[in-house]
Every structure is written in structure tokens, then in C-alpha cells.
Design a protein that fits this description.
This protein is an alpha/beta fold. Helix content is 39%, strand content 15%. The chain contains 17 helices and 19 strands. It starts with 8 loop residues before the first strand and ends in an 11-residue tail after the last helix.
Length: 499
């Protein structure tokens, strides 16, 4: 697929409707012509992905998405394909009714979906049931059809969005199409890039339908996709003091590994010096296995104070625990008012004792931690990840990273970026500790909190994709350390990059 100047931009449904109206006016065309362009783009996608295919079944809803499907059927039949069309309702409305009439006028047959109907024996199913406006669970008949399509064993091409997926949030309130390919029209849609969308969109392609640049320039995106970035080359005269001193605070009894992973990640992320404040019992093991870390046993705030004075950035929370020892170190570290990355039990303690931050601060919660910070359920966070991460950032005065499929990064001004990389193998212990370390290292090297969060999230996810080339299952957090170093230095690899 070609790339476009605005292919990073992600929009809400309200913005997309504005863009569609502006596009029709700017191009001087009807809604029917725009539908025909969408149908043509979808047919081109079909030919690219399934060039030998001869028999398709298109499932059309009553609205404009169904209209795209009817015109897709017209073009596909003209191209020599065997086409069957199934509909949810006996009538369509608006431009979709005209598109339906065009299909029937050309000799096309419409099969209504009944309770007992089985799917045709097609080689491909085309989803044109619901468009961008669906924010609820599909009705019973549509839900049954969606489940039949998902269980058919045949590939699925979704037009604009997989039906049942909320275009604004990526949430599925009920049944939702699991597409192999989704061709989305005009502009990027934010809900297709996070949360449940990862299991429903498949390969995502953008077809702008000839919309002029002026339409995109007039409507600021709600969010943007991250792009692959690296730090600039270091000056040859550089010394370790130029690259910051990260202090990792954590490692309660039995959790030395979390502190070590965060510390080693900070080293691989380029920090000049990395210290670890942990339980005394862990010092020997950490010094023996990673001598580049400066590991100190601390029994309370008094022992931590001189380490805080020397550090330029704090990484607070990996393996910290919430008992008296961890709580005392947490309070002391926050009172130092230094640039900070807060994760794990550092976040859980913050949920118990909320505060706003004045120093540059980055919060890195998973959905469960985010729910505790916001005083809601995890399900509510996942229902609208965009609203949740923005509320986190606004409430705590910090850059917030909401981890998960399609991690989100937000700042208190409402700016939001979405990470397009990462894989299910990264759902394992220690991955969050690595993220804490690399983000802290970037903050220590002079990045702003926003820059450190965006670059760190991107490097972490891309390292996970490179490490998963041998398979996702069984991926260890420490497997990311070597690719993390390579990617931070711009060493090319075979991992997929977002254009």
C-alpha cells in the first residue's frame, strides 16, 4: 500500500464525519461517487491479497457501509468474480439504497439473512455490515451472522472497520468480525490501533480515496501513531557524566530480578551511570551478575538520601512492594522532587496516596494499575483507553503510558500517541521493568518527559518484535536487552517498522 503525508494521523468518528463532508465539497462529488471509490479500493486490496480467488460473499448492512458493499459487488462481478450478497434488512437507506438498487439493476440477487440460513460456500467473506457509527453490541441477527463468518474457516475482508468494533475506542461490546485484512477509508481511525482491535483488524490498509490534503490540514488529529526513532549520535568527547545517572529504587525480598531488569535496561538504554537501591540481601548477587550496576543495600530513608542527591533521574517501583520498607523509600524518593519514572508498586502506592507532580514525571501503568489510580474498574479503563490515559495524565500532572496492545502515551495538554508495535509474547513478567529502565535512561540523557516516553515505548516494543522472531511464546524480558541496544543505536533489523 502507498503511504500518505497524513498516514500517522488518527481521528475520532466525529472528526471523520467532518472530513467526509469536507471531502465531498472539495472534490465536488456525490456520496455515491465516494462509495464507488471505496469499493474500488477494496477490490484492489482483494486482488493484492487473494489474486486467485473467484467466489466471494458480501454481507451488507442497511447503512453506508452496506452501500460500499453493494458497489463492491457490482465492481467485483464486472471483474469476473462470482458474487453473492447477503443482507440484514429488507431495505437500505440514503446513498446505500441507491447502491443496492445498482446491484439489483445489474442482475444481482439479494439474500436476506434468516435465523436458519447457512453461509454460502464462498472463498472469501466481505464484511460491510456496520460502519464507523456503531457504539453498541450488534443486534441478535447480526451477532449470529458475525459468529458464522468468524467460524467459517475462510478469510475475511472488512470494509472501513470490522463490524462490532467501536471505531473510537477499540472496544467490542458484543460479537465482532475477526478480519484478515481491513481496508479503512479516507483517514486513520484511532480505535483500530489499540485494545481489542489487535485481534480483529488483521492487516490494516488506508485508502484515502483521493481526498485532497486541505481536508486533512484543516482538522487536527486526535492522536498520532509513533514512528521509529533513535537518539542522535553522541559527541566523540562525551563522558559518562554527560549521559545521566539513573537510580533504580526497588527489589523487596524475593524481587531482586525486577530491580536488576530495570537497571540493566537503563544501561542498555544509554544511561551513563546506574545505581540500584535495594534490600541488602540482594547486593552480592546483583553485583556478581551485572557488575556495571552500582548496587547498594538500603534499610530505610536515611541510607537512601545520599543516593538521591547523586542521581539525576529516579526509576521508582520495580519490585518495591507496598510494605513499610517500600513505602518509606517511596515517600523519600517523591519528596526529592527529581525527574521520575513511576511503575509497579510505585503506582499502587500513588493510588493510595495521590499527588500531582511538578518535576518531569512519567507513569507507566498496565490497565489494572490505571484502574486503581483512577478509582474505577479495569473493564472501565479498557472500555475507553484513550479517555483513561488522558485522565491519568491530567489528574497527576505527568506523562502517562497506558500499556497493553497498542500502548498509549498522553501528556497533560491532551497530546496522545499510539504505539503500533509489540506482540503477545511481551505479556510476561519483567517487561514493565525493562520499560521503566529504558524510559528513565532517555530522561537522564536529556529527553523531555514526552520524548522519553514516546521513544522508550517505541524502542521497547520494537525490541520485543525483533526478539520474537524466534517465536512469541516463551519470550523473556531479558531477550529484549540486545535488540534494545541495537535499535537505540539505529542498527537495522528485520522487524516491521511503521511507515
Amino acid at each position: 500500500m502507498p503511504t500518505y503525508p497524513y498516514s500517522r494521523d488518527l481521528h475520532t468518528v466525529e472528526q471523520l464525519r467532518q472530513m467526509e463532508r469536507a471531502a465531498l465539497a472539495a472534490l465536488g462529488i456525490t456520496g455515491q461517487e465516494l462509495m464507488r471509490r471505496a469499493a474500488s479500493a477494496a477490490l484492489n486490496s482483494l486482488r493484492r491479497h487473494w489474486p486467485q480467488l473467484r467466489h466471494i460473499c458480501i454481507h451488507c448492512g442497511p447503512g453506508n457501509n452496506g452501500g460500499d458493499g453493494f458497489l463492491f459487488g457490482v465492481l467485483a462481478r464486472e471483474a469476473g468474480l462470482q458474487v453473492e450478497v447477503m443482507v440484514l434488512t429488507t431495505a437500505s437507506h440514503g446513498d446505500a439504497a441507491i447502491a443496492r438498487q445498482a446491484w439489483v439493476a445489474g442482475g444481482g440477487r439479494v439474500q436476506w439473512v434468516g435465523d436458519d440460513d447457512t453461509l454460502p460456500d464462498a472463498e472469501l467473506h466481505v464484511d460491510a455490515l456496520y460502519g464507523i457509527g456503531l457504539h453498541r453490541a450488534p443486534e441478535a441477527a447480526a451477532a449470529r451472522l458475525i459468529e458464522q463468518i468468524n467460524c467459517s474457516g475462510q478469510p475475511v475482508l472488512a470494509l472501513d472497520v470490522p463490524s462490532g468494533l467501536d471505531t473510537d475506542t477499540g472496544h467490542c461490546a458484543g460479537a465482532a468480525i475477526r478480519a484478515d485484512v481491513t481496508v479503512t477509508f479516507i483517514a486513520g481511525k484511532r480505535g483500530l490501533h489499540t485494545g481489542r482491535a489487535a485481534d480483529h483488524v488483521g492487516v490494516l490498509e488506508l485508502a484515502t480515496l483521493g481526498v485532497p490534503d486541505s481536508v486533512y490540514a484543516d482538522i487536527a488529529p486526535d492522536a498520532r501513531l509513533l514512528v521509529a526513532e533513535v537518539l542522535p549520535r553522541r559527541m566523540r568527547y562525551a563522558n559518562k557524566g554527560d549521559n545521566g545517572h539513573v537510580l533504580v529504587i526497588g527489589g523487596e525480598h524475593g524481587m531482586a530480578g525486577a530491580a536488576r531488569l530495570a537497571g540493566e535496561s537503563a544501561l542498555r538504554g544509554g544511561a551513563g551511570l546506574v545505581s540500584v537501591a535495594t534490600r541488602a540481601e540482594h547486593v552480592f548477587a546483583l553485583n556478581a551478575t551485572r557488575p556495571e550496576l552500582m548496587v547498594h543495600g538500603v534499610d530505610g530513608p536515611q541510607a537512601l538520601a545520599p543516593m538521591l542527591e547523586r542521581a539525576s533521574v529516579l526509576a521508582l517501583g520495580p519490585g518495591l512492594g507496598q510494605a513499610a520498607w517500600g513505602h518509606a523509600l517511596w515517600l523519600t524518593a517523591l519528596d526529592a522532587n527529581k525527574p521520575l519514572v513511576l511503575d509497579a508498586d510505585g503506582l499502587n502506592l500513588l493510588a493510595r496516596e495521590p499527588r500531582r507532580f511538578s518535576a518531569p514525571t512519567i507513569l507507566t501503568p498496565h490497565p489494572g494499575e490505571a484502574a486503581r489510580l483512577l478509582g474505577v474498574s479495569t473493564a472501565e479503563v479498557e472500555h475507553d483507553r484513550f479517555a483513561a490515559v488522558r485522565e491519568l495524565s491530567s489528574r497527576y500532572g505527568a506523562v502517562a503510558v497506558l500499556k497493553g496492545a497498542g500502548s498509549l502515551i498522553a501528556d497533560p495538554d491532551g497530546r496522545l500517541d499510539v504505539c503500533p508495535w509489540g506482540n503477545p509474547g511481551m505479556a510476561s513478567g519483567g517487561m514493565g521493568d525493562l520499560l521503566t529502565g529504558v524510559v528513565a535512561a532517555l530522561l537522564a540523557q536529556g529527553c523531555s518527559a514526552w520524548q522519553a516516553a514516546c521513544l522508550g515505548v517505541g524502542l521497547h516494543a520494537r525490541a520485543g518484535d525483533r526478539a520474537a522472531q524466534l517465536g512469541e511464546r516463551g519470550l523473556l524480558a531479558s531477550d529484549l536487552l540486545a535488540p534494545l541496544r541495537a535499535l537505540g543505536n539505529g542498527v537495522s533489523g528485520r522487524e516491521r517498522e511503521h511507515d
